[in-house]
Amino acid sequence: MDDIDQTPELLTVAETAWQLRICDKTLRRWIKKGRIFAVQPAGPGGRILIPRSELDAVASRQHGAHRTNIEQTPRSTSGPRPRWKRLGR
Fold it and tell me: Which residues contact 59 (CB under 8 A, 6 or more apart)?
């Protein structure tokens, strides 16, 4: 994550989504739900900016949650068989 150390103090939605490796729409949803703090200096309808400190906090929460989910999720080999259609013949 060396790229994060060189980013400005306020990031756009596109820059933050790229750093977190998520879709812009997902980030906007997280902002709306309050999961990520963001500001709109120009008011409603203006550009949304995310503080770099928030990016660092979310990245650490996201990384920790991902690790615990992998450890706690049992691997299942059973399940419904895929319904494949044979083409040709």
Answer: 1, 4, 19, 20
C-alpha 10/C-alpha 49 separation (Å) is 6
Determine whether domain 4-68 maps to CATH 1.10.1660.
yes
Cα dihedral sign, 17-63-8-49: positive
Indicate whether this model's pTM tops 0.85: no
Residue 50's identity, in one-letter code, is I
Residue 22: both structure tokens together: 């998520």
Element (H, E) at 51: strand 49-51
| Torsion region of 32: left, alpha or beta (phi above 0 gives left; psi -120 to 50 gives alpha) | alpha
pLDDT surpasses 50 at 25 = yes
Look at residue 44 and give its three-state secondary structure.
coil
Q: Where are the domains of the chain?
A: 4-68
